[in-house]
Amino acid sequence: FGCVNTSPTQTVAVTANPITPIITSPPTTAICSGSSLILTFNNPTINTTHRWYETSLGLVQIGGATYAATTSGTYYLVTTSTLSPLCFSTSNLITVTVNANPSTPIISSNIATPICQGNSVTLSAGSYDPNLTYTWTPSSSNAGGSLTDDNINNVTATGSYVVTVSNSNGCNALSLPYTVNVNPLPIVPIVIASGP
User: Fold this and answer.
1) CB neighbour burial string for 109-138, b if at least 16 within 10 angstroms, e if fewer
2) What percent of the chain is predicted at pLDDT more than 70?
3) 97 vs 72: CA distance, rounded Å
4) Could you tell me the end-to-end alpha-carbon distance of the chain, in angstroms, rounded to an integer?
5) Which of 36, 61, 116, 186 suits 16 as a labelling partner, its CA being 20 to 30 A distant?
6) What average pLDDT does range 139-154 have in this prediction?
7) Cα distances (Å, whole numbers) of residue 40 to 8, 57, 60, 125
8) CB 77 within 8 A of CB 90
9) Separation of alpha carbons 148 and 128, rounded Å
10) Cα separation, 104 vs 173, whole angstroms
């Protein structure tokens, strides 16, 4: 008869991975330079830690239920169990695009100010770029120009003027204010003749 030798029984415990985190897709994943896109995830699991990654940069943040993305890239989240063994799950990918802002416009005028009442000054935001939209404040109703032109013609009112330029991605740049002062004309003297 053959001999039989039975080994001791070994118990193997299999620990389940944490629930796979899902990064909630924002309404838009395109932002403008200087802004941030807040990434969040759902179905968090107890006894876990979270690490945010970008595919080219690697680890970008330890912990946190949210991450504020400020650079273009593809982001994901790794959830790791704090219990032994350290099992983990990886989220879906979210690609963030950061679009450049237009150059900040600098307002200049064709003549020095202040000006006298009845005269006008032309304000310019620089060379016209057909790929940009120009919006002036105060608007053209006060200044006599066009809301989508690169300058305001015939500015005749005292005020502080600014211009906002916008590109096709919806990114904006705002100028510094340019103040126009209009001085009133002196009272016209009236010569009165006297004598016999």
Assistant:
1) beeebebeeeebbbbbbbeeeeebbbebbe
2) 85
3) 5
4) 162
5) 61
6) 54
7) 48, 19, 15, 40
8) yes
9) 10
10) 5
The dihedrals phi and psi of 136, each to the nearest 5 degrees, come to -100, 150
With CA atoms as reference, report the closest residue to 19 among 60, 40, 53, 50: 50
The answer to whether residue 164 scores a pLDDT higher than 60 is yes
Q: Which residues of 38-61 are buried (b: 16+ CB within 10 A; e: fewer)?
A: ebebeeeeeebebbbbbeeeeebb
What's the rounded Cα separation, in Å, for the pair 101 and 132?
A: 11
Tokens of 168: 């096709």
- Taking phi over 0 as left and psi of -120 to 50 as alpha, with beta for the rest, 58 belongs to left
Structure tokens at 190: 């009236």
Short-list 131, 137, 133, CA closest to 123 = 137
Dig out the tokens for 194 from the structure.
């006297």
DSSP 8-class letter at 55 = T
pLDDT tens track for 57-76? 999 999 888 999 999 999 99
Q: For the CA atoms of the chain, what is the radius of gyration? A: 33
Q: What is the pTM of this model?
A: 0.73
Q: How many other CB atoms are found less than 10 A from the CB of residue 180?
A: 21
